Amino acid sequence: MASENEARTAREEWGTRFGFLMAMLGGMVGSGNIWRMPYTTGQNGGGAFLLAYIILLFVIAIPGLMAETALGSYTKQGVIGAFKKTYGRGWSEGFGLVVVVVTIALTSYYLPVVGQVLYYVAHSFLLTFSQPGFESVAFWNEFTASPLLTIGTHTIATVLVGGVLLFGIKRGIERVVKWMIPLLVVTLIVVAVRGLTLPGATAGLAFALTPDWNYLVRGQTWIAALGQALFSTGLGWGIALTFGSYLRQNDDIPLGAGIFTAIGNTSIGLLSIFAVFPVVFAFGLEPTAGAELTFVSLVSVFPQMAGGPIWAIVFFVGFFFAALSTGIVITEIGVSTIIEETRLDRSQTVLVVCTVVWLLGIPSAYSPAFLGTMDFMFGNWGLPLATLLIIGTVGWKIGPERLRVIELNRNADVYIGSWWNPVIKYVIPLVMVFIMVYYLLTNIAGSTMQTVGGVVLMTVLLVGAVLVMRVVRQRETTNVASGGD
After folding, report:
1. 115 in a structural domain
2. What pLDDT, on the 0 to 100 scale, is given for residue 8?
3. I need a surface site. Which of 53, 306, 340, 470 has the fewest CB within 10 A?
4. What pLDDT digit, counting tens, does each position of 318-364 carry?
5. What are the residue ranges of helices labelled H in 166-307?
6. What pLDDT is recorded for position 234?
7. Has residue 12 been placed in a domain?
8. Stated pTM of the model
9. How far apart are CA 413 and CA 466, in angstroms?
């Protein structure tokens, strides 16, 4: 029994610093950058949205990721365990449950997107997009109208993710992301260079880089930029917290979760913009096409490019690597949490989590409209709630100065000064709450359902999770007192 308990409590660690950096980048860079960021940019004013996004990236996401990673390294626990170690057993563990529920909800509609990319990868190799008479809209509609295809690809994506997770941190996640992420960067550079050399491509750059100042006073722009900053960096998903718990004593949090995040995430996000918008404008396509921008608009362009079939393969393979690596990383959050909170081993947990995510993802796989609603509700409201709980715990329970000294600057090559303390304690919570309240006030009349729905979602998540954990812990205490197992 002693050896079994020892085996269960022994926590895996990253094998190398490079593996940790690639895993952090793999968690951050995925469909959020390549699928979500271009269409969200197109819908919210182009350059104005990018300006809001970059401001929030450096004001909220980068310092916040340092805090979330340091919290994981400090507690050496998964999401619920980190809150338990900080607050003690009881209702406050519900804060961790909120993060887990939000991440599982996000994963449930993310894996169908991975399946969509896989379908396009297969057809890029079959040269479908360069066939005479190919129609991208009809192709997309045929795919989304077929439950066999959408649910089938969602199933394959879930199996692939589960297969990698069965091998654990070092032999599974680390081994895969170390070659996936560098290959993704190479493919994006190739496609971006080709896009920028197309006639008329400069109009796409102008759209992406020239702010329309009218958009910067709109609540929609800022709530979308906030959601994108959290979605594409992974802040609030529990990724940084979980990965931080696997850090070794000599790993560098400011470098991995700070500078590398800023440079890596922003660079790949801009590469995606350079890969998409020059092509969209060069061929007179609509930049506000929405979630279909990548799957419909770009596919219609590849056949018109010299060497189009090759560019299609390169682009969708890179896209698939990004999407799959993020799918692996975010599914690990639920896996690591359940392993810690139950008696299941990794194989059993991976099977349970993947089955739950697969079942929850079927509606999103079946209906693009349902997927869009899930993305708006959990991306723009669920993630900010989860982020506020993590940052609030560091800022007001543990104390940023304590975490900065004990964890953040331990063995760090980059020293983080005391400026970080007020950013965590005051700036991030105030800026996030201001954006959400501003959005509520400016949009409640025009989009009542979405606005009220977001508030209801946050309330139900928070109250429900706290009550669930309170009941669970009370029952455990009662069972122990009565001599039960």
Report:
1. yes
2. 47
3. 306
4. 778 778 878 888 898 888 888 888 888 889 999 999 999 999 999 99
5. 175-196, 201-209, 219-233, 239-244, 253, 260-282, 299-301
6. 75
7. no
8. 0.81
9. 39
Give the number of domains in the chain. Answer: 1
Report whether 239 contacts 51 (CB < 8 A). Answer: no
Phi-psi map region of 307: left, alpha, beta (phi>0 left; psi -120 to 50 alpha): left
Consecutive H or E run containing 477: helix 448-481
The type of residue at 58 is: F
Q: Which domain holds residue 362?
A: 21-474
Q: Which of 326, 222, 254, 225 is nearest to 62 (CA)?
A: 254
Does the pLDDT of residue 11 top 70, yes or no?
no
Residue 215 maps to a domain:
yes
Q: For residue 126, give both structure tokens.
A: 């079959």
With vertex at residue 10, the alpha carbon angle to CA 9 and CA 11, rounded to the nearest 5 degrees, is 105
> Domain holding 265: CATH number?
1.20.1740
Task: Compute the distance between CA of residue 272 and CA of residue 185 in angstroms, rounded to an integer.
Answer: 10
In the predicted model, what is the mean pLDDT of the chain? 82
Distances (CA, A) of 362 to 63, 152, 155, 368: 35, 10, 9, 11
Q: Which helix (H) or strand (E) holds 449?
A: helix 448-481
Residue 463 makes CB contacts below 8 A (sequence gap 6+) with none
The answer to whether residue 192 is domain-embedded is yes
Among 182, 171, 191, 189, which residue's Cα sits nearest to residue 321? Answer: 182
